[in-house]
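Q: Given only this backbone (338 positions), what sequence would you predict?
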């Protein structure tokens, strides 16, 4: 059985393995021991705080196979993007120019550096073993974060965003980066993303042009990358789109990947998940597949379970499920259909 839980310091060696395997562009999972250690300790500290509102807290989760204690993935929530420094992105909007004398009005798409998205809660760091792509485990890794938010809404903003990794080829080259960012940093795309993961995007963003970049002046290859998803990022995009997230006018300033946005009230796993009382049973006549979590903070747990669940009534869980969730007879769990 796979269970999602908060990260622990003992997970560091396995997290390093996941970092080495992660897609270029997943900057929140740097292949660096000290940075990963800091990220783990930051998450542990965030879970120990008595928080009254959303601040700089970071919540880091891992997907563990309980059979062999092997980590199969990880994902994160940053309570407030841009809390300590601006969260930069590119705004893609039309600029209109007009001439009364010639009776001409023309609109041109342009990219502008901004930090409009600062203040929103940010989902990041999604990585899952290749063998689990397209399985319920990928849904668990992504959506259980939303169930955590549902249980602790006071710790998060009223809207959630996430950046989906943009296109780069098999050699790690990004046409968008080569047409734009590379002119301001003499760095290849993978190195820029690596530095962003080790330090922050701020020092790179501050060197980007602070005036509009007219899209038609970019190469066609770069234009084609605007809002384009890396094939390995499609899983993360599809899951959140089904949750109610939508694309908007913002893209990643390094690879041009799309940004997804949703208000808490419109996110399926938050708005539609239900609280049920646990009834331990020896056998389950399963009628459907569900995501199930407890509502704990430090001891948060979530699993995929085949259940016979009827809204408004207790939910029958096996002893194995109860153990994985750290719940007992009569305790509450949060449930939503897969």
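A: Predicted residues:
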């Amino acid at each position: 059985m796979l269970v999602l839980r908060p990260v622990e310091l003992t997970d560091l060696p396995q997290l390093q393995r996941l970092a080495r395997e992660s897609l270029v562009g997943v900057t929140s999972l740097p292949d660096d021991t000290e940075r990963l250690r800091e990220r783990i300790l930051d998450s542990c500290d965030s879970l120990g705080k008595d928080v009254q509102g959303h601040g700089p807290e970071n919540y880091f989760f891992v997907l563990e196979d309980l059979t062999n204690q092997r980590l199969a993935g990880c994902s994160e929530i940053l309570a407030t993007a841009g809390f300590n420094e601006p969260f930069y992105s590119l705004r893609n909007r039309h600029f209109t120019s007009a001439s009364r004398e010639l009776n001409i009005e023309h609109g041109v798409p342009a990219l502008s550096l901004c930090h409009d998205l600062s203040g929103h809660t940010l989902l990041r760091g999604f990585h899952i073993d290749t063998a689990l792509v397209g399985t319920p485990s990928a849904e668990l890794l992504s959506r259980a974060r939303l169930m955590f938010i549902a249980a602790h809404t006071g710790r998060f903003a009223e809207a959630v965003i996430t950046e989906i990794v943009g296109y780069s080829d098999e050699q790690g080259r990004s046409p968008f980066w080569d047409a734009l960012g590379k002119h301001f940093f003499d760095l290849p795309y993978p190195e820029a993303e690596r530095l962003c993961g080790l330090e922050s995007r701020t020092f790179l963003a501050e060197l980007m042009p602070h005036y509009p970049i007219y899209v038609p002046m970019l190469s066609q290859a770069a234009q084609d990358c605007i809002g384009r998803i890396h094939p390995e990022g499609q899983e993360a995009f599809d899951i959140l789109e089904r949750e109610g997230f939508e694309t908007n006018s913002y893209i990643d300033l390094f690879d041009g990947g799309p940004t997804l946005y949703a208000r808490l009230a419109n996110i399926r796993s938050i708005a539609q998940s239900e609280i049920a009382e646990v009834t331990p049973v020896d056998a389950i006549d399963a009628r459907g597949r569900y995501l199930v979590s407890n509502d704990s903070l430090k001891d948060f747990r979530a699993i995929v379970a085949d259940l016979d669940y009827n809204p408004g009534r207790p939910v029958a869980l096996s002893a194995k499920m109860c153990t994985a969730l750290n719940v007992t007879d009569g305790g509450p769990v949060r449930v939503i259909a897969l």
